Amino acid sequence: MTYRGRFAPSPTGPLHFGSLVAALGSWLRARALNGTWLVRVEDLDPPREVPGATADILATLAAFGMESDEPIVFQSQRIAAYNAAFQRLCDAGHVFACACSRVDLEPLGGLHRHACVAPADTSRACAWRLRAPDLTISFDDLTLGRQAQNLGSDVGDFVIKRLEGWYAYQLAVVVDDAFQGITEIVRGADLLDSTPRQIHLQRLLGFATPAYLHLPLVVDATGQKLSKQDHARPVGRGEPISALRAALAFLGQDTRGVPASIDALLAAGIANFNLACLTRASWPNRRHEPN
Ligand code: GLU
Fold first, then answer.
1. Which domains does the chain show, CATH number per domain?
2. pTM of whole model > 0.90?
């Protein structure tokens, strides 16, 4: 089977160092295995989107020598596919309408389990949740090894269509990874916790489960994840060499002696990319402090 990987940014701001690492890790892995690398823009959350962010992210990726091998998929244009998947899940009895708010669920540790707690006569708008069975989903992550999570007790019934009418990330990502024939998902470890939900949805919808490789998460000096919402410093397109060296170093590669060109750094990155660099043991030492 031909390897197909992807990078799936949300256009909530410019690319920051953490998303550069995720993009580069997925790109190197695909190139090292002579596979295909795709970009999918996850523009499914209009209130969080920043105008111009999509163009900015794509231009930054291009400046780093990373371009999608096939036409870019935009989630905002895939609503019909999400409608169809949602309908199948509804028809099979896995989905229910729910008016419970975060505040309603606070006394239950934030988990929705079985019965709704919002008053039945509520006039509040509804979200749509997938029933989380008492089922442990396990998978072997390529860097982290065996992972397991009980959907019922660890996650609870989860939203697949939001009350504003938009589809939730968990459903859209599963539909699109299947649509694009993704064989392995390389992404940051912040999404590790979402993986069992996605595997469950893949099984309900009859999709193949890809392999998973979660990358060390880039954190700041206080141990917090860097995120676009926190205004982590954007990666500058003007000086890609130093950012690329830093991202390769973060992925466990020594680029001393590699000439200061994008092509040379990427070629060395492909040649030296290996899973041993990414083992869990080295994770706690990896820090990136944005200036
Ligand atoms: N769009 C998600 C993000 O930017 C990533 C989704 C994924 O890689 O599964 O965090």
1. 4-77+177-282 (3.40.50.620), 79-169 (3.90.800.10)
2. yes
